[in-house]
Write a structure and sequence with these properties.
Blueprint (H helix, E strand, L loop, with lengths): L4 H21 L11 H8 L5 E7 L6 H16 L7 E7 L10 H6 L2 H4 L40 H6 L3 E5 H15 L5 H10 L6 E3 L2 H12 L2 E4 L3
Parallel strand pairs: 1-2, 1-5, 2-3, 3-4
Length: 230
């Protein structure tokens, strides 16, 4: 059937609308250039004997951070493993994924209000990442001292002991859309995603769908799986 000028114009307009819709909606599935494959492989290839991946979806008052600290201390002090032989990964997705982001975006996007997390210092919704900054005495190396680096449950403190924190690209995509809907933001989803990812805490590594990444860590790099009930 011969295409009329009207059909051609309609097709062109439809194509433009589709393109604009795709641009506005952004993407939900990661491609290789969207995540830090080299950084992930560096984590996987650390020459460590003891390997654990913590699958974390809920912040739960930071219970999982305490458990990671206990894993480190158990391996090092109870089983005599040298720190160089311990490789622990915190795979954060769901609400816990937001702990990968710094104070600037916690305030800008009202992340505390978004997940109903209150700051104990103010009693208001958190406008900062409550679990990142270390307050440990870095000169205190007594594992039995509550102020020592070995009892530090902060993300910063655990990173200093070699723990890797993973940021889920899929969760970030989904959360950007929920933030836009919840607070009536004018930005497009990909604008919010890029802003969030640009404001990751130091050392946070972006990976694709965390549920797939956890399986890769288990299958390809011999990580044992553990999760934490909030």
């Amino acid at each position: 059937m011969e295409m009329t000028r009207k059909d051609f114009i309609a097709l062109g307009v439809g194509g433009i609308i589709t393109a604009l819709s795709t641009q506005a909606d952004g993407q939900l599935v990661e491609r290789p250039h969207d995540w830090s494959s080299a950084e992930l492989h560096a984590i996987m290839n650390k020459p460590a004997r003891y390997r654990q991946v913590y699958d974390v979806t809920q912040i739960g008052g930071g219970v999982f951070l305490n458990n990671i600290k206990n894993s480190l201390n158990g391996f090092q002090f109870s089983f005599g493993a040298p720190p160089s032989q311990i490789n622990i990964v915190a795979a954060l997705h769901g609400a816990a994924n937001l702990l990968n982001f710094d104070d600037a975006v916690w305030k800008k996007y009202r992340l505390g209000e978004f997940i109903s997390l209150k700051d104990p210092k103010t009693g208001e919704f958190a406008t900062r990442n409550l679990y990142y900054t270390s307050s440990a005495d870095k000169a205190d190396h007594d594992p039995d001292s509550e102020k020592s680096i070995y009892q530090d449950k902060s993300i910063e403190g655990l990173q200093a002991r070699g723990v890797s924190f993973l940021c889920c690209h899929t969760a970030t995509e989904e959360q950007s859309r929920k933030l836009i809907a919840r607070f009536g933001l004018k930005e497009q989803p990909e604008t919010v995603v890029k802003d969030l990812l640009a404001h990751r805490i130091p050392g946070s590594t972006v990976v694709p769908a965390m549920v797939a990444t956890v399986a890769i860590l288990q299958l390809e790099a011999r990580f044992s799986y553990i999760t934490v009930a909030a």
